[in-house]
Amino acid sequence: QVELVESGGGLVQAGGSLRLSCAASGRTSSMYAMGWFRQAPGKEREFVAAIGWSGSITNYGDSVTGRFTISRDNAKNTVSLQMNSLKPEDTAVYYCAADRAPFPRASRNRYDYEYWGQGTQVTVSS
Fold it and tell me: Phi, psi (5° rounding) for residue 86?
């Protein structure tokens, strides 16, 4: 069992930055690939970024490539999402997720993720 708790959301102006964090707890949580997804009102949950358990593999959604950076610290069991050049369309609830990947991967598919956090709201004003 893995428990995930997100933090760092808030209100920011367009062009600004935020850093989201996800604290993971549970046995062997460092062996999970981790991902960030987001969901805006009335829309489906969207892939944002993912990182393999060792940190050597990363994957980004098309709309955030070049602006967002995912990283992890396995010693602290944390995953972070640095978000720069934020746009109003980035407004959503952001979820951290854990994938008990059977091989090294950073999946874009939300159905590969077994555990989810409660989410943190990010609002970008224009």
Answer: -65, 145
Lookup: tokens for 119:
């989410």
Q: What is the tens place of the pLDDT at every residue in 39-96?
A: 999 999 999 999 999 999 999 999 999 999 999 999 999 999 999 999 999 999 999 9
Angle subtended at Cα 106 by Cα 103 and Cα 109, rounded to the nearest 5 degrees:
105
Dist. CA 16–CA 85, nearest whole Å? 5
Residues 6+ apart with CB under 8 A from 104: 33, 52, 53, 54, 56, 57
What CA–CA distance (Å, rounded) separates 90 from 126?
11
Which of 36, 38, 32, 37 is closest to 2 using CA atoms?
32
As given in the structure block, the two tokens for residue 24 are 């993971």
